From TrEMBL:
Species annotation: Diplocarpon coronariae
Listed Pro residues bias regions: 1-20
CDD domains the record matches: RNase_T2_euk
Official protein name in the record: Ribonuclease T2-like
Entries under InterPro entries matching the protein: Ribonuclease_T2_eukaryotic (IPR033697), RNase_T2-like (IPR001568), RNase_T2-like_sf (IPR036430), RNase_T2_His_AS_1 (IPR018188), RNase_T2_His_AS_2 (IPR033130), RNaseT2L_C (IPR057328)
Function: Rnase which modulates cell survival under stress conditions. Released from the vacuole to the cytoplasm during stress to promote tRNA and rRNA cleavage and to activate separately a downstream pathway that promotes cell death. Involved in cell size, vacuolar morphology and growth at high temperatures and high salt concentration.
Region (Disordered): 1-41
Length: 516
């Protein structure tokens, strides 16, 4: 029988989670989970915990949302009175229609038709649990759930054109919550995967990147601190880790590359927009979604645990994760080591107030071998190979092996590098490429976090759906089919990313390996 989840862990914002009993995190993390602000109470609320749930809702949801909606029309006294009435309503001491009337009159925000809808709804409310009653009221009042998006559509599932793109995620309609299992070096707790990012892929599996240079920030920590999100920062500092111990750089990269491409986080989609509040939303949503996806516990429940000797079949790992998520996930490996999981979602409504709906990957489901997958423990003691007496120390890394960057050179001058999709970029962070000896003969293969690399229809690309192409090195430069010369339409400028081709074009470019 699956273990009962820790009560401190809030549920994922996804709809209809496959198995709530599997949602547990290690004990040392569960205490932190409860500290993250704006996390809704667990589904156990209302079963003998009415007072506690009422207080939680007032503090974490109702008061904050009410203060936002009434800020420009209501005095401080008005807010206090409104909050008191909401508190009494949640304790079943006043009927919902009385509270509705008070709020509507004081704010002047809703029409008589909205009031009538609320009264009809209130008449159907009987002696239900506090949170259920609160949800019924708040849904009609327009506070936490899809209030500005009546009849929201689900991304990538719509059959008609969405009229309001602040209520519909497009073109990035498939949201991916991605997680790392870093062991070289190790990051995060020994019994927890860590957050990689929250990515808005297109419905066909392609994606945009760096969508709004004006909203690319270099001060994520400062933005969160200015918003009072110290608990969120503490959480991220434990579970959203960079392997080079530069968490801020990773957070900036994830927001700038992916967060700016989530259309429902654009400033125009916020009433009374406050500078950079969409950044706060991005990290809160990512952290909250991650909380409901405890990969370590899911695998552990299926008997899949880190080991220095045991190996696993891909089907074992996929079956365990699919049973929890309700759909297959993408699983990535590096040199036979399990190291990344991507959970896919569609979103009903906008990303802030909508529902995350588990979805299947588009295209491939990763690049791991079918058998012999190693799930390596974190923080293993370092080992070294003795050097024979009188011999020179062996090099720790050879060109085009292990992890490194592909630096671009044109006219003998370094002009940027290749990023994860295989495109050429001159102003951003270089992607980490993993080179491995080709099992089928000479040469080596390349991969990034986006997937295996190959030349497809004459274009160098890295994607989950790619086969692993074979590359070689000529005088230190990357070569394909014996040629170390690649081409592009131009040298990229600013935020442009350009395809790299094997067909003759305006600019010749070569790529040189830089070990990480």
């Amino acid at each position: 029988m699956p273990p009962t989840p820790h009560p401190e862990l809030p549920p994922s914002p996804s709809a209809n989670p496959p198995s709530p009993t599997s949602r547990r995190r290690p004990a040392d993390e569960a205490a932190r989970d409860g500290d993250l602000p704006h996390v809704p109470p667990s589904s156990g609320c209302g079963r003998g915990y009415g007072l506690l749930c009422a207080v939680s809702w007032v503090l974490h949801t109702v008061f904050l949302q009410l203060a936002t909606s009434l800020y420009n029309t209501c005095s401080f006294l008005c807010l206090l009175v409104s909050s008191l009435f909401i508190f009494l309503f949640l304790l079943h001491l006043i009927p919902s229609w009385a509270l509705a009337g008070l709020i509507l009159i004081m704010s002047g925000r809703y029409s008589l038709s909205a009031l009538w809808s609320l009264l009809v709804s209130a008449s159907a409310v009987t002696a239900t649990a506090g949170p259920a009653r609160a949800n019924n009221f708040l849904r009609f009042l327009g506070l936490p759930q899809n209030a500005a998006c009546p009849d929201p559509m689900t991304s990538c599932q719509n059959t008609t054109v969405a009229q309001d793109l602040c209520c519909f995620n497009a073109p990035g309609g498939q949201l991916l919550l991605t997680q790392f299992w870093d062991t070289t070096p190790s990051t995060g707790p020994e019994n927890s995967w860590t957050i990689h990012g929250l990515w808005p892929d297109h419905c066909d599996g392609t994606y945009d990147a760096y969508c709004d240079p004006a909203r690319e920030y270099k001060n994520i920590t400062a933005i969160l601190e200015a918003s009072g999100k110290t608990e969120l920062l503490d959480y991220m500092s434990t579970f959203w880790k960079d392997y080079q111990n530069d968490d801020e750089n990773l957070w900036e990269h994830e927001w700038n590359k992916h967060g700016t491409c989530i259309n429902t986080l654009e400033p125009k989609c916020f009433d009374g927009y406050q500078g950079q509040e969409e950044v706060v939303n991005y990290f809160e949503i990512a952290a909250r979604t991650y909380m409901g996806l405890n990969s370590y516990a899911i695998l552990e429940d299926a008997g899949i645990v880190p080991s220095t000797t045991k190996t696993y079949d891909l089907a074992q790992i996929q079956d365990a994760l699919t049973a929890f998520h309700g759909h297959p996930v993408s699983i990535a490996c590096t040199e036979g080591r399990l190291d990344e999981i991507w959970y896919h979602f569609h979103v009903r409504g906008n990303i802030v107030t909508g529902d995350f709906v588990p979805a299947a990957p588009v295209g491939g489901k990763g690049d791991c071998a079918a058998t012999g997958i190693r799930y390596v423990p974190k923080n293993l003691p370092a080992t070294s190979t003795p050097t024979p007496s009188g011999a020179a120390p062996a090099p720790t890394r050879t060109p085009y092996s292990g992890e490194g960057f592909l630096q671009a050179y044109t006219g003998g001058v370094n002009k940027g590098c290749l990023i994860a999709a295989g495109t050429w970029y001159t102003t951003g962070t270089c992607a980490t490429y993993t080179a491995a000896k080709n099992d089928f003969g000479a040469g080596f293969t390349l991969k990034t976090n986006d997937g295996p690399c190959d030349v497809v229809d004459g274009i160098f690309s890295c994607s989950i759906g790619n086969p692993a192409g074979t590359f070689t090195s000529v005088d230190g430069s990357l070569a394909y089919e014996g040629s170390a010369v690649f081409y592009a339409a131009a040298v990229p400028t600013r935020t442009k990313q350009l395809d790299v081709s094997t067909s003759v074009d305006n600019v010749e470019v070569s790529f040189v390996w830089e070990a990480r």
